[in-house]
Specification:
It is a single chain. With 799 residues, the protein is mostly helical. It is 65% helix and 1% strand. Helix 21 packs parallel to helix 23 and helix 38 (685-696) packs parallel to helix 41.
């Protein structure tokens, strides 16, 4: 190899033959004929390489021969070996001089543009051979930058060989590692991790693994954009070469010596190193890790892992750490607790008692305001998780977050803090009142503390977050405190004005708008005073404008548009409960509310929209008999007194007048009848109740009941009402169905057809036996129509 390399060097040297020092005979081992590395002298005075003479002694013993000098064959009395230090030093000096010259030749060969790829490969191989024996010689010869430059070669073979050589010269030599890490070589090596050639990836990750053993290079490797992400990907790959996976894993382990790298690993999904440092590190390290953790954006499954692994430690730091450590920990807990599953883990780990204790602390143990805000944020997340907080004790007693004293403390704290904490604590109450089991406790606490007025005042807050949270809270408690809220809101035009301002905002439909309209929708619809006040402040004009805009596609779809539309319909429907006022009737006519509500009844629509629309149509339909335009009676003449009155065309069959949907709210003219009938087999009983209520207005005694029956018959509505009676889903449906069926059975043809229907008969008997007084009376009349009960009044009349 040396001779071949020398020949190629000479061929590439412009100055011809280069001086080569002579090999002295004393340097050569008589046994191996090779230059000695460790010369030793035996008792005959001859010198051999240590390894060679020891081998000779073993062979003599193994073959049963006497120990003798290999050259003189003289028997040896001793096997003592005396190191020849002077000779070894001379050999070392000679070797170093020649290696330096050979390395210089190799260096010039690698730098020469005239060198072939094979020349360069042989030169690199020579460097490897020297490096095995004397790695510092490569450093001293200045070859590392040159070899690093080959990484940018266009030859795959040359690049691969350069990666291999750099790894070899870096082994066990920190100076060489530092030399390789100079410049942008590490960045170039990282790029190889993404190459399509497996061999290059394998060699590159092996080199990085070796370099990462140097603590000073760990930060530099981690500082290359994407380096840690690529390594994390390789280490977790199931399709990559197993050697690459293992080397990538070892490299990442080495890189953990640098805290900045640990943060990057966590950012790229490798969180365990950070958690280990957090659990086992010094207080300073724990602080750093907590700060990192608080800055990360964690996936939900990772939040659960962190909560399970480090939750107790974080809670301990939150409770006993320095202010700075507690702040960092609360920031981390704020993110971890934002997932339902991880929040439950933290609750099980005992976070709730110290968290609430810190929030309510006063005096010297009081938290700084910014920490209280963060604590309130964590508590808000925990509450939003839906955990059973009634079962989580806050102290050694039986107090929980739902206990009246705790609710009172929350309400007091809300009223005596700044906007940031107000917002968070209002969110806590929003979360608690979102739970069907917890809301009653909060409502009880609000009532007993007299906090309704102060909570309502928050809807006028300047800070949007506080205002939105207050509206959401009031919306949540409104089904349980509708009367109190109606009195408080109705007593102040400014409060109502704020709610209306939120609804009328034209910057899109957001959470604030949905909460505001939802609050108004829950207020008692029979409160005519509140309805009049809303009308006076222009609420219904705002509502109908918004509703028509959504219907006509004028609003961008988002997750709030459904609840917002439901609220609009429910608020608009409350106007129909107060139609005694002429201005309300005029408004309903102006906006053709009968047609609007009829159009909102769709089979696949929102249940709440259908229910509110059906009840609104019931109220409007009850006004039709008063609003229909009656035809003028014909003028009486002598001739007309003896002739039949002329018929008037275009009259409503039900109301016997001129009807329109807009002017008289007629169900027939608004084309609502078929839509209401379609709702009678709805899965939601409340929808059936509302639809049946609206249809029953066609059978009222103040209109043409017979024509009403025929209208329902033509619309195929008779059978669904009989079915509703038979199914007997709720008491209200039973009452209304019995009432309607009795009117159907006044028609002899229907009565005869139904008299043989056992199911109808049984349903009427059930109503007769178990209904309230009025329902029993109506059921009795219906049973008489189908002759299931004797009609004694008819018998008496006949007699």
């Amino acid at each position: 190899m040396a001779e071949e390399f020398e020949e190629n060097c000479e061929n590439n040297d412009r100055h011809g033959e280069i001086y080569q020092e002579k090999v002295y005979d004393a340097f050569v081992c008589p046994l191996t004929k090779q230059i000695m590395r460790d010369p030793v002298t035996i008792e005959t005075g001859y010198t051999f390489d240590r390894e060679a003479i020891l081998k000779w002694f073993r062979e003599c013993q193994n073959n049963g021969r006497k120990l003798a000098c290999p050259l003189t064959r003289k028997e040896l009395r001793s096997t003592d070996l005396n190191p020849s230090i002077a000779l070894r030093n001379a050999i070392d000096e000679w070797t170093q001089r020649n290696e330096a010259k050979e390395l210089d030749k190799a260096h010039r060969l690698l730098l020469s543009s005239a060198s072939s790829e094979q020349d360069a490969l042989r030169a690199l191989e020579f460097v490897v051979n020297v490096s095995w024996k004397r790695s510092r010689a490569v450093y001293n010869g200045g070859l590392i930058p040159t070899i690093s430059g080959l990484l940018k070669s266009g030859s795959i073979t040359l690049r691969s060989k350069a990666l291999e050589v750099l790894r070899i010269v870096a082994e066990e030599n920190n100076e060489n590692k530092e030399d390789i890490g100079a410049g942008d070589t590490i960045r170039t090596i990282v790029k190889f991790l993404l190459h399509e050639y497996i061999k290059e990836r394998e060699l590159a990750v092996a080199l990085l693994c070796e370099l990462s053993k140097s603590e000073s290079l760990c930060e530099k490797i981690g500082g290359v954009d994407g380096a840690i992400l690529i390594l994390v990907g390789l280490a977790s790959s199931k399709s990559e070469n197993i050697v690459v996976v293992e080397r990538a894993e070892h490299t990442l382990k080495n890189l953990e010596k640098c805290e900045k790298n640990i943060k990057q690993m966590a950012e790229n999904g490798r969180l365990q190193p950070l958690l280990t440092k957090l659990l086992e590190g010094s207080p300073e390290t724990q602080l750093s890790m907590a700060l990192y953790l608080g800055e990360l954006i964690l996936a939900n499954d990772v939040k659960v892992l962190v909560a399970q692994t480090a939750g107790p430690t974080l809670i301990t730091i939150m409770t006993t750490g320095t202010v700075q450590a507690r702040e960092a920990t609360l920031k981390a807990l704020n993110q971890i607790s934002s997932n339902e599953s991880s929040a439950s883990v933290l609750i099980e780990a005992g976070i709730l008692p110290p968290l609430v204790r810190d929030l309510f602390a006063v005096g010297c143990g009081r938290l700084p305001t910014r920490l209280k805000e963060m604590s309130a944020g964590v508590l808000s997340n925990l509450v939003a998780s839906g955990a059973d907080l009634e079962a989580v004790p806050l102290d050694d007693g039986d107090q929980t977050l739902l206990s009246e004293d705790v609710v009172h403390n929350l309400l007091h704290l809300i009223s005596n803090t700044g906007p940031a904490i107000e917002h968070r604590l209002l969110q806590v109450l929003v979360g608690l009142t979102s739970s069907p089991t917890a809301v009653s406790y909060i409502v009880s606490g609000i009532k007993s503390s007299g906090a309704v007025i102060s909570l309502v005042q928050f809807i006028d807050a300047a800070h949007t977050d506080v205002r939105v949270a207050a509206l959401k809270l009031l919306h949540n408690i409104s089904p349980h405190m509708s009367i109190e809220l109606a009195e408080t809101l109705g007593g102040s035009s400014s409060h109502l004005g704020t709610v209306l301002d939120a609804i009328s905002d034209n910057n899109g439909i957001a959470e604030e708008q949905a909460a505001a309209i939802g609050l108004l929708a829950e207020l008692p619809e029979m409160d005519s005073g509140l309805t009049k006040q809303l009308f006076k402040q222009g609420a219904f004009r705002v509502v109908i404008t918004k509703l028509l805009s959504i219907r006509d596609g004028g609003a961008r779809s988002n997750r709030y548009i459904g609840p917002f539309q439901e609220g609009l319909v429910r608020v608009l429907s409350r106007l129909t409960y107060c139609l005694a006022e002429p201005e309300h009737i005029a408004f309903a006519k102006e906006y053709d509310l009968a047609t609007v509500f009829a159009g909102l009844i769709e089979a696949n629509g929102s249940d709440k929209v259908i229910i509110a629309s059906a009840f609104a149509l019931e109220n409007l339909s009850q006004e039709s008999k008063y609003l229909t335009a009656k035809p003028e009676p014909p003028k009486c003449t002598l001739l007309s007194c003896f002739s039949k009155p002329p018929s008037v065309s275009g009259l409503c069959r039900i109301h016997h007048g001129f009807c329109t949907a807009k002017e008289s709210f007629c169900l027939l003219e608004s084309r609502a009848v078929e839509k209401l009938i379609a709702c009678l087999d709805h899965t939601n009983e409340k929808v059936v109740e509302a639809a049946l209520a609206a249809l029953c207005t066609l059978l009222d005694d103040t209109v043409d009941t017979v024509e009403g029956v025929y209208v329902l018959c033509e619309a195929e509505g008779i059978k669904p009402i009989f079915d509703a009676l038979i199914q007997n889903r709720t008491e209200i449906i039973q009452k209304r169905a019995v009432w309607a069926v009795e009117r159907f059975l006044r028609i002899d043809d229907i009565a005869r057809e139904v008299s043989g229907n056992q199911s109808v008969g049984s349903a009427l008997v059930e109503a007769y036996r178990n209904g309230d007084y009025r329902t029993r009376q109506i059921a009795e009349r219906a049973l008489k129509h189908i002759e299931r009960l004797p009609d004694f009044s008819a018998i008496a009349a006949q007699s």
